[in-house]
Amino acid sequence: MLATIVDRADGVVATFFHLRASQLAVLSRNGIPLVRLESQHKPDGPLAIDSVYIDNAEAAAEMTRFLIARGHRRIAMIQAEFGPSQRRAQGYGAVMRDAGLSPDFITDSAYSEESGARAMKRLLERKERPTAVFGASDVLALGAMEAARIAGLSIPNDIAIAGFDDIPVAKLLGLTTVRQPEFDLGALAAKTLIGRLLPGGLEAPGKSHELKFEIMKRTSA
User: Fold this and answer.
1) Number of C-alpha atoms within 13 angstroms, CB side, residue 46?
2) Which CATH number goes with the domain that contains 193?
3) More confident residue, 32 or 102
4) Whole-structure pTM value
5) Are strands 176-179 and 214-216 parallel, antiparallel or unpaired?
6) Contacts (Cβ under 8 Å, ≥6 apart) of 37
7) β pairing state of 34-37 and 12-14
8) Residue 208 lies inside a defined structural domain of this protein
9) Structural domain boundaries enclosing 194
10) Which of 32, 153, 157, 165 could form a disulfide with 138 if both were Cys (CB 3.0 to 4.6 A apart)?
């Protein structure tokens, strides 16, 4: 894939969740600037990559604090095996431990509603089920909401559900979630890349740009 990019692109804005910075060195060697979205990854070795992101760990921590403030003590987190889910899990876990509570992770293989539904079914089979579920993405949370409804549970009276990302349908369905400024993230990434491509443009690469998140409090939690 990277070889194809080298042949066809002057610059790249991408996530590359599965690749380390050192694996992207082929772009640097070929003079192709890269801006990573959703990454707080610090360059390993001489490779310098621009990053545009929100603090995923702190955003998840803030959502966890919100759920605890609402009176929840048994809070489970549905996470995926890759991407920003890992940092979101770190934030959730840290707050749970600081509050004297036990982190409860349910991991599935992908970001999908099907994954969220599978995880929720596992949670609901427990003798002592959680009173709140935090999805590491909105699609996981939406799958969890559907599984809870099929089980005859009322949201949030029987179980509260929260997500992460604030995708368009989240507001329609009343999902409490973490809002990422997606437009601003994309615009800043594009502006940064263009600055790298223009003659006499920005200073040396390797800059990190952190934008603010927001907790969207709705009816699901």
Assistant:
1) 5
2) 3.40.50.2300
3) 102
4) 0.86
5) antiparallel
6) 13, 14, 15, 51, 52, 53, 185, 186, 189
7) parallel
8) yes
9) 2-55+181-214
10) 165
